[in-house]
Amino acid sequence: MPTDDQLPFQPIRSSLYSSRELMAGFDVADPLSHERIPDFLIYVYFVIKGRSTPRDPYAGMMEAVHDNSILRAMFNFIRAARQPIAAIMGGHKEPRGSAAYRAVTEISKRLTEGGFLMASGGGPGAMEATHLGALLAHKDAATVAKSIDLLATQPELPNSMNIVDKDGAVDKALVAKVHRWAAPAVQLLDKLGDGGRSLAVPTWHYGHEPLTPLATEVAKYFLNSIREDVLLALATNGIIFAPGRAGTLQEVFQDAAQNYYRGDGPFSPMIFFDTKFWRETLPVEPLLEALFVKNGHGEQYKSKVHFTDDIDKVVNILIDQKDTGAKMMSRLETLGMSQMLADS
């Protein structure tokens, strides 16, 4: 394990990560190679040092410097890309090949083809499908189907919560299982080559879950609170909420709070894909309607909040309302981040 003066990460960076950089050394033929990739080594270090409350002041300082550096690199990338940004949130347990996984892939593919930069948390499930869709932009239906079928040979990520204990001991059996899940995505990336870009915003707070290899640009943070605020704020052109559980629900109401307290900034579209899920399984509609309609935001609620099962409607709503920059600056202003974007 690296000592304090041998950090497994570079605290100051001028660019974002790529999935290939973080997964360097991954070998589809070696089940334990996942244990040696930079992404996993950084996670082990993060756990040993105390996770989100590091016991070692030096480690905490270096992690904070790193996160600030990644934040600036991300803003540099966004400013250079000059694309409208939309995000897809959804369950990390969504199996590859499921109806929801295929739908998210199609939505992301079509929005990428429509000029959007697609963003997600960069993990498995609906997040991976977001990056897959972007990667498959302008590919034909047969290629899309074959790609999903390859991934679906390993449909579900194993429960890897205990892959590293607090002292840094690694469960090699779990490493092999995670490797088995990741291998088809690495193989697919090699087959597809370059495709549409996408932005992953993951965190080592959930480092037991592997980064999807299908993301092209990766802004990975140690502190999850920074990651959540930034990801939701960047997606000013809309967030699509696919079925999920506690994490997705948190993002629904965090996004609602940003919309509610937006000041003079824009109300970012909120699209709930799968009406039965969002009206019956997790019935968020009455709460959102009570929050917005009964507190003077009724017009924005009716025009910006949608519940639908129609992929065409999702895509058309966002394309009709897309904006490249002004909305984002207004939204970041409410979080005190707009100056960093302007200075980056």
TrEMBL record:
Recorded hits in InterPro entries, A to Z, give: LOG_family_nucleotidases (IPR052341)
Range of residues in the leader sequence: none
Q: Which GO terms describe its cellular component?
A: cytosol
Protein name per Swiss-Prot or TrEMBL: AMP nucleosidase
